[in-house]
Amino acid sequence: MMPDREDSLTPSEREAFARLPRAGTPPAELEERVVRALATRGLLRAQGRRFARAATLAGALAAVMIAGVVVGRVSATGAAAPSPGAAVPAPEGKLYVLLLLGGPTPASEAEEAALVREYGGWARSLGESGRYVTGKKLGEGGHLLDAAAGNVRADPDLAGFDALGGYFVIEAEDDAEAIRVAESCPHLRHGGRIVLRPIQPT
Amino acid sequence: MTAISSEERWKQEATEERAWVEAVRRSGDEDAFRALYRQHTPALYLFALRLTGGRASDAEDLVQETWIRAVRALSRFQWRSSLRTWLSAILVNCSREWGRGLLDVTDAPEPAVAAREEGDTIDLERAIARLPGGYRTVLILHDVEGYTHAEIGGMLGIEAGTSKSQLFHARRRLRALLAPGRLHTEPG
């Protein structure tokens, strides 16, 4: 049985504790550091900015695509690839989608730039080998429509939404090749997960 | 001009705080976050500084991680406690997970020799900083921050009785570190 560990502070002890300060003076730069950390994680939006600064993988992908670094497919004849946004010619192999979950959260602009170069380089190599079809960044938030639950609800805070950052569609001969391509994605090296699914031919 | 009563001021501040929380929750409003940060960080920072035994760099890291987790979890905060209490609990959890030797709630042995020389006085803050991590945390939470043993138990994942026992040992150790009969704060 635990002994009754009860003792009280003496009046002078109580007074001494009461005199202790209740607030400190954090370094001035800590506020900017915290704001930056939140902003790079997409948790804050600065006033006047149209888009949240993205430092997740999705943001890196968006930067890659917007900059035109991701090149479309190169046909087997080596002809110039269609530019992003142009009509994509029918692929010759099977199509697969790579859903990118989680991944890196760069804490600085330098880290983000390095990720953009790394993912961009990988996407370029896919284009040059004729495997790249398309890829998109997903926006923040979202909705879950669940008729089976008896309702249709919009809840952007559902767990898992934040984890899905973007996707690629690739072309591969078969499942084995698709897996090899997915395994080469830098996303895995940065702690992310990839869901690889074949796209049903129509 | 009618002076605003303290109760009215409190209500006004509480209303403002809720508005800031909603603005951050709904749209990640940076200005609203900065208002919350400035309101709560001075206390959080000092709390973190005491938990880390005065290690400023660790305290800053803890404060940053606390805010990151708090903003992420803001959608689940339902005002069952004050925002300050909620933030403090997150900070305590952070320090536990980081395992910085802050919350090893075990019965550490008494020092073989008194931790002071005769005539040497150690102010209360420094004495608290010299306590073993587990004792220090419970003492800070109870005697400095004013949480009950039930609340401390909830934060640390221990029974209220364990918190009481740890506080007993913490106070005993603290008294051994301080000059006999004198308990004072640092001048200024």
Keywords for this structure?
heterodimer, A: 202 residues, alpha+beta, four-stranded antiparallel beta sheet, two-stranded antiparallel sheet, 6 helices, 17% strand, elongated, disordered N terminus, B: 188 residues, mainly alpha, 8 helices, 0% strand, disordered C terminus
In short, what is this structure?
The complex is a heterodimer of chains A (202) and B (188). Chain A is an alpha+beta fold and 202 residues long. Chain A contains six helices and six strands; from the N terminus they run H-H-H-E-H-E-E-E-E-H-H-E.
Low-confidence stretches of chain A: 1-5, 48-60, 62-91
Question: Largest beta sheet of chain B, briefly?
Answer: none
**What structural category arises from helix and sheet content of chain A?**
alpha+beta
Radius of gyration of chain A (Å): 25 Å
- The total count of strands of chain B amounts to 0
Mean pLDDT of chain A: 71
What's the total helix number of chain B? Answer: 8
Shape of chain A: elongated
Structural class of chain B: mainly alpha
Task: Describe what this molecule looks like in 3D.
The complex is a heterodimer of chains A (202) and B (188). Chain A is an alpha+beta fold. Chain A has helices at 11-19, 28-40, 57-66, 109-128, 175-183, 186-189; strands at residues 94-101, 132-137, 144-146, 151-153, 164-172, 193-198. Chain A contains six helices and six strands. Chain A has a four-stranded antiparallel sheet with strand order 2-5-1-6. The termini of chain A are far apart. Chain B has 188 residues and is mainly α. Chain B contains eight helices and no strands. At the A-B interface, helix 1 and helix 2 of A face helix 2, helix 3 and helix 8 of B.
